[in-house]
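for the writeup, i need someone to sanity check this before i put it in the appendix. the sequnce is what the collaborator sent (i think, or maybe the updated version? ugh). structure was predicted straight from it, no edits. if anything looks off just tell me and ill rerun, i have time this weekend
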Amino acid sequence: MSSIWTPASPGALTRRSFLGAAAGAAAGAAAGAALSGCSSKNATTVGNGHKTLDMPAHIDPKRAAGEVVSTVPGVPPGASKLPEPLFASVDGKPGSGGPLTTFQINWGPPPQPESKNHYWQGMSERLNVQWKPTLVGADSYDTKLATILSSGDLPDLVFLMTDLAVARQAIQAGAFAELSDVLGGDKIKEYPNLANVESFQWKNSAINNGIYGVPQDVAYINSVAVYRSDWAQKLDQPEPPKNADEFLHLMTSFAKGKPAGNRQTWGIVAFDAGIGAFVNAIFRVGTPWRLADSGKLTNQIETPEYKEALNFLRKLWSAGAFHPDAIANAKQTDKRLNLFAQGRVGWSVASADTWYLSNWSDKTTQANPGAKVTMMLPPGHDGGKPLAARSSGFFGMVSIPAKTAKNTDRLHELLRIMDYLRAPFGSKEALFLRYGEEGYNFHMKHGVPVPSTDQASANDTNMSYTGMRPVTFFYPGQPTAVKDTVEYTASLTKNAATDPTTGFYAPSEAKSAGVLGQLATDFLNGIVTGRKPMTALDDYIKQWRSRGGDKLRSEYEKAMKAR
């Protein structure tokens, strides 16, 4: 049973995603992004904006009995069961019976037509609207967004990736409503579920101190490293590793120590952003940019810690710790999962919301009786604490077109609908939004919602990603897994830094991201695999600076001084 009440993993989406295998070691260097695949850098120097942010008031969501709630900001709560009974988070139906058009990402196979689709029909009925969604696959999001923006005919609710140049340009041109007058301060209390959004998420998603949408919740740390601890015990290896040398030795042992008998195994499944972020945390590389007291920025690739991390990845490769298809595996999520579940590799990184149950631990233990899948925090290279990089705490936002917002009644109706769509865990609304209609899209088994085995019905719930859902780590019947995941995320969040450029806008970033991303891929793949010497790092830094890196630095410094 996989986790629910979390966004589908956004790690496969755009230029803010993993920039191929090499970019895992330098995602920030390539495009100024944090090492989390779902992090987002957001413009704060475009749009009309305000001198100061009218911070919306915060209301803690109603908690279901038994929820595990961390005191560390940016750590999602966890739960192992639904409350009985479910509670209602809204009063009545928010819509007025007319059409509701949306633009949203579809993370899986396309759903059935409305006439056969109980989820679609159920959404329209509950919202009291005629729901007319425009669903786009993650791979085509950029182009489809550009198309609707250029048409000028915008849906009522638009899931907007604010790190894209076309989105920033649209905001700057006044295409989307600035919502401070209706959501700032205590005014947001009219929409209690929207008031559950954390203050740091409003701050990080604000654009020139203006509120241009409701941010999609995402954890500061949204991935966990997992490994076969039963292999480590069989090989009599210290686990979890307490320093870089022990991690290197453990991964090498997985590849050469025959933990699965005569079957060939390896340590690390892919050379991707996951292993890059993990090793960067080991060597305390920190955030993509560092800010000195003088106001000068240094990119991570220019630091000695980065060089150490890159050299360590090179050691792992030369020692045979990586799967032979590690570079290709970086872009194949299903293959990474299957190799781990089949017992061919002993270490990987998974989304924090799905690692434990059906996607990782359950599949692994079913295929390999006696297997034990355990989370692994990155150790400091010298035995001390690690230093990870936080995401911005949100993944895009849901925005309302400025033309639509001119109608005050329509604006408030849409905000009521958004309030419904952001229903918290444990509510009747959240159960439907994630699972759909009971008896069609899911059935209850021992108090747990179980998705339909009918593929068509299951596909219909892919429509559930509206960009509004709050994150909760929900592992039915697994209280220990819930506790461990919350504690893991909290521990790494406490030992993580926030990029000082988060919330600032570099005009050339969108144009240079592809160039710098490809540059990172070319150099870092070569360096780590041994096709290029370590001295190639100096040439990489030189080219990075001349091909857009220095310009990014200058633009960020200018924006930061202006605030």
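DSSP finds 20 helices and 17 strands in the chain. The CA atoms of residues 287 and 389 lie 5 Å apart.
thx in advance!!
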